[in-house]
User: What shape does this take?
Amino acid sequence: MEIVTLAQRPELVDEVYAIPYPPGSPRFMEGSLTSLLVRGRRVARRWPHLVVALLEDGSPVARGIMVPFHGRSPFPARGWDEVAVWAAEDALDGVVADTACALEIAVHPSHQGRGLSSVVLTGMREAVAAAGLASLVIPVRPPDKALVPRVSMESYAFAVRPDGLPVDRWLRTHVRAGGRVECVASCSATVQAPLAAWRRWTGLPFDRDGLVVVPGALAPVFVSTVDDYAVYVEANVWVSHRLWSGK
Assistant: This one.
């Protein structure tokens, strides 16, 4: 296996972005307006040195995508959305970045269960160090939280097993790879849309007001039939990673 960046292998961009998201990823997340600022190809053009690909026999089997920003605060409460805005603002304003934030890690479905996420994390740390940035932070979205949507993220994120590792498997992967669970970003990702869009994304009727549990959502969705909209506010978990120079 080999870790490369798109700055090193720009011809791989199509294959890297062809890696699908994990099966069962909620469709409604495509309604995040903030994510449009850091859409895949846009990041690949602007920051190819922060798009990492794991190759097996020369073909990408996993990717890690990061954006740089100048840290206003180490772990902002508005998490993923706020960092995406900061990265776009800094790029437009010519501000020198000092921190990298990972936006996603994706392993091809046919290669899952092999521990490749940890390999990608190592490659991401190496890429951040090579870029001369001081730190790598990640607003982690623990997908298993969707099984207990009415439990607070604070309680969920800091629950540990007898061995001291997180109960959540994805947070556990980060900790085993050298990450540190720092705090909760209480409103990290927001999706707001008319009810017709939510019905299309979920297949649910959205015909009553109040909180509705949606498959794949880490928290209930707030619905207003009177005003014809629903809002989803997702908490994520800030994890910091020590940099790895490879030396």
About this structure: The domain at 2-241 is CATH 3.40.630.30 (Aminopeptidase). The mean pLDDT is 94. Helices lie at 13-17, 40-46, 79-93, 116-130, 153-157, 169-176, 195-202. The chain has one domain: 2-241.
